[in-house]
Amino acid sequence: MTLNNIATISTSYTIRVPIRLIPKGNLPIVKISDLEANRSLNTKRLDRIIPDQMNLANKGNLEDGDVLISGRGSFKAAYVEKRVDTEILATGNIFIIRPNENIINYKFLCIYLNSPQVQKILLRNQKTTTINHITIKDLQSLDLRIPDLYTQIKIVELEEIKQNLCLLYQEKCDKTESTINQAITNLIK
């Protein structure tokens, strides 16, 4: 089964004029640098613009459950969940994958696209040697081995447990480092 059989894939909006980022702008934009692998898109941290003379025509508008994957660089994928804003615009070289929720869970698809096996396939399909990039055809023809929805949900739950444990471990490391640095500072005085 190919990705094209279980999802619609579209490209993001290409901004062709210089834009000014405005903190109070009414349209949040997603750039490749905003994507974190296997994570929900943090909509609160997005840059904003005022789309004065942009003819958006719904191209690049995101919905809950969309999976975003960078079309160049490291091909990391993230998902859209619980949008605060009514509209969010994906810009630059980002592909928007809207999965058929009866076949594939969007969080599972994100995990799957970030897996080492799929990343190897994407790297094999890259089009240049200087900056890695893939085409929409590469994504559409990506051959997938998808388990049933129940198994997908279990995999998502395991990934969330892993992420929470990694976060707790990092917090513990940060506190330990801070405590030791403070102790060293006190001893040097």
Structure summary:
The protein has 189 residues and is of the alpha+beta class.
Folded structure, characterized:
It is a single chain. The protein folds into 2 domains: 3-146, DNA methylase specificity domains (Adenine-n6-DNA-methyltransferase TaqI, Chain A, domain 2); 147-189. It is built from 5 helices and 7 strands, in the order αβββββββαααα. The protein has helices at 3-6, 106-114, 116-124, 136-140, 149-188; strands at 7-11, 27-30, 47-49, 67-70, 77-79, 89-90, 94-99. Strands 1-7-4-5 form a 4-stranded antiparallel beta sheet. The chain has a 3-stranded mixed beta sheet with strand order 3-2-6, with no helix packed on it. The chain starts with a helix and ends with a helix.
- CATH architecture call of the largest domain: Alpha-Beta Complex
Number of strands: 7
How far from one another are the termini?
66 Å
- Give the count of helical stretches: 5
Radius of gyration: 19 Å
Strand content: 5-15%
Average pLDDT works out at 85
- Helix share bin: 25-40%
* Domain module count: 2
Class inferred from helices and paired strands: alpha+beta
CATH topology of the largest domain: Adenine-n6-DNA-methyltransferase TaqI, Chain A, domain 2
H-E string: HEEEEEEEHHHH
CATH superfamily of the largest domain: DNA methylase specificity domains
Shape: globular
What does the largest sheet look like?
A: 4 strands, antiparallel
Low-confidence stretches: none
For the largest beta sheet, what order do the strands appear in spatially? Answer: 1-7-4-5
